[in-house]
Amino acid sequence: MAESSSNPAPPPPADVPAEGGEDAASTSKKAAKKAEAKAKKEAEKARRAAERAQAAGPSGAGAQAEDLATDNYGQETHETKLSPDVVEINLKTLGDEHVGKTVELRAWIQNARMQGAKMAFVELREEGNWTIQGVIAANAEGTISRQMVKYVGGINPESFVVVEATVEKPLEPVKSCKVSNYELHIKKCFVHAAAPAALGLTLAAANRPIANFSDEEPALEEGVEKLTVESAIPAASMLTHLDNIVMHKRAPVQQAIADIRIEVKDLFRSYLKNLGFKEFEPPCLIGAASEGGSNVFRLPYFEKEAFLAQSPQFYKQFEIAGGRKRVFCIAPVFRAENSNTPRHMTEFTGLDLEMEIKRDYTEVLHTLEGVLLHIFRGIKERCAEEVELVRSVYPSEDFLLPEPGKEVRLTFAEGQKLLREEGPEEYHNVSDDEDMSTPQEKALGALIKKKFNTDFYVLDKFPESARPFYAKEDPTNPKVTNAYDFFMRGQEILSGGQRINDPVELEARLRRKGMDPSSQGIKEYVQVFKDAGVPAHGGGGIGLDRVVAWYLNLPSVHLAAYYPRTPKRLLP
Ligand code: ATP
């Protein structure tokens, strides 16, 4: 908050004359002199104030020498009081029934400006982009003084204030605010928590599309901020956003993305619970690298070493082995991959499920397809406003869904054939036995969109070489597995498939993959299937961050995470 020269001043200390005693006479003389000097000073002050009032003219309501409004504004203290009949409101539920009522709003100052000496306008913001215009005008009675108007008009943006006001209908809708049909006529305004005069990142800049996602400091000449053609408001880099995490989070676009993310989790959870799935929590700290490989974070664990879970895969299966038929979990996943791409983070949130297979692994595939379609339809239904808000910053086309009953499921080989026959030149020789590269996947996504008018599809029957040791081979063609990936706008968002539940078959496949069935971590995994009969089962892992990002067609998955973790970024 800017220290205002017209801040209400504490009352001057009372002059208390000394009480009787030996020096009482001289003391009272001194006191009289002091009082005389004080009276002179007061008289001079009053004369100057009268002069000022006269100069301001007869209507100079706020120019009174004495500020009668000091109880109505300033820094909030324990003595700050609002009127007893005040009604607490929030902007989302403000309605005609509030018009004329005295209300309390606790909000951030988004903007404050003076309109002449006696009037000021403020934009007050609750969460997201819920804003309302506040007006304050000096009155003849002096309960709203000029000093008060100046104080309110000078509050630093992003300060948190407590306002008492009457709700009025403006003459014309206030286009700049989300709540456009009402405005607040401010009677009291207290700063609860002041923002500094200069913000590291303004709200307007935080709400612009991010200019640069590099984890490196931009070169000096590039500048952290660059002016774009469409807007005079400078866009900032992801680094600046993360260095100013508070303003990054206050940006309505970020809150809209977060709100969509919350709904996606909720849609996932509620759909599966309705189908009888049980939720569980897998551990993040594990004693052996679950899926092997180099992309595992290691950390000291007392005298030993621990690892951060690369996936809840084994634990989902342990739940099935442990007597559950259908389980799901929502948990962090850690990958020590030095992948500096818009698709990767070192920590992301996995939406995972695992279920018993009764007849055929496509039961799992269809369940996963069902939950994702439910999520996509749910976003459209529940988050229309948030999606619009995100689009105003990051434009995107509607996410196209297949018509019910016309879901697109191609085998990996069919996908490769499509690329060979109709894809770009460089993919005319792709093989059915080799995994796809990311550009290849994107090219296939474009072809599928053109052919089937959908942004969502499944590729099934991945080659054996492209899947981990626990993937079940197709009994009719061991060159491929009962495993699939799901795609949104040509980018992978899910991997899954049937798992091997027979320990003999599992050990054989481990050996074929060049792995030792008796190695630490693997031995214990295989033992689970020896300990008791485990039914056929399968599942899949969905990357929550990618679902949100690709649905909205964001330029990077980092925007969908609350606190993105990348190889170079661990703060905040
Ligand atoms: P990619 O090939 O894109 O690196 P992956 O094959 O390693 O992904 P899986 O191990 O199958 O991915 O993980 C399942 C899902 O988790 C992916 O489909 C994706 O949605 C998400 N995911 C995987 N790795 C990351 C990551 N580093 N950052 C964000 N999400 C990820």
From TrEMBL:
The lineage of its organism: Eukaryota, Fungi, Dikarya, Ascomycota, Pezizomycotina. Residues 1-65 are annotated as: Disordered. It catalyses: tRNA(Asp) + L-aspartate + ATP = L-aspartyl-tRNA(Asp) + AMP + diphosphate. Residues 260-572 form the Aminoacyl-transfer RNA synthetases class-II family profile domain. This is Probable aspartate--tRNA ligase, cytoplasmic. The keyword Hydrolase does not apply. Keywords: Aminoacyl-tRNA synthetase, ATP-binding, Cytoplasm, Ligase, Nucleotide-binding, Protein biosynthesis. It is found in: Cytoplasm. It comes from Podospora appendiculata. It is an enzyme of class 6 (ligase). GO terms for biological process: aspartyl-tRNA aminoacylation. One of its GO terms (cellular component) is aminoacyl-tRNA synthetase multienzyme complex. One of its GO terms (molecular function) is RNA binding. The keyword Cytoplasm applies.
